Amino acid sequence: MNDSRTIVKCSVSNCNYWGEQNVCKAEQILIEIDKHASAKYSEEFGSEHFAEHKDYASTSSATCCLTFKPKNS
Fold this sequence. Notes:
It is a single chain. The chain is built from 1 helix and 2 strands; from the N terminus they run βαβ. The protein has a domain at 27-65. It is 10% helix and 8% strand. The model has no long low-confidence stretch (mean pLDDT 77).
């Protein structure tokens, strides 16, 4: 089987998923528009809520990555 994963580059070096050459090591990436950035996706119903809506971002600056998790120091 051929692994066709997309390589995600990130510049946030204090993230738990940050790897060599700025490659994100997370198995899944959750990206949301800023309007919904404060949603509680870590709660049990969070992933269901995420699947229920579709949004439109006119610029990349209107989005944010919710996968970020600080590294343990």
